[in-house]
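Please check these two lines:
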Amino acid sequence: MGKEASCAFNETLALQLTGPLNLECLRQAVQVVTARHEAFHLRFSLDGAYQETTPPVVIDIPLQDFSTLEQATKDAKVAEILKQEASEPFDLFNGPLLRVQIINLVQQEYLLVFSAHHIVFDGWSSGLLLHELSIVYSETCQGKSYQLPEPTRFSEYVIVQAADQENSKAEAYQYWVDQFADTPAVLELPTDRPRPPFKSHRERTGNKLTQCPTRAASPVIACPAADTPTTMSSCLDRRVNNT
């Protein structure tokens, strides 16, 4: 698979955080949550014949400070970062299959940019990621131990899925044979522009930008490193509930 085709599978989530933020607790929460899930530590052979699980590694989470820049320059730099995340391929063989960075926009306003390959991360996964991140971050800020259920290993999930598919394969096959017994004629619909004969994979990759207000509906939490209560947990909870 070429670089452009591989980048078509990049998934980028940009979460705007408003209010006091404990950066070290956030970094720790990201490490904990990504280490919990086996999918983030998978590596795939170049020919796609096999995959293997590697031990969790420490993720580099850089902080970019744009707080002193003019708004136009700041917007351009953020747009460039999101474009770079969409156009930078992941190494499926060597990993890692995710990238995380934090951008300081202005005082008490940040952007958490999380990117991963679609082979290990999708829209449903983002809700789970943010839910667990909110719990771990909140408990870490308060010096408490987080309580999360043990995640299902990817290998165990595959075994269950394979067994279910084997049991219903004949039934599913016959169902679709019956559905397409009478194939309808090709429907020629008008398009906005002529389509090329071959797919280039150069279409725009979508980025999700979620804004979190300073005053969220759910209660704020106390963070020892902040002068006032932080609202990240409630912001993330709102993001999950609205998904």
Observations:
- Helices lie at 3-7, 23-36, 71-87, 123-141, 154-179, 232-241.
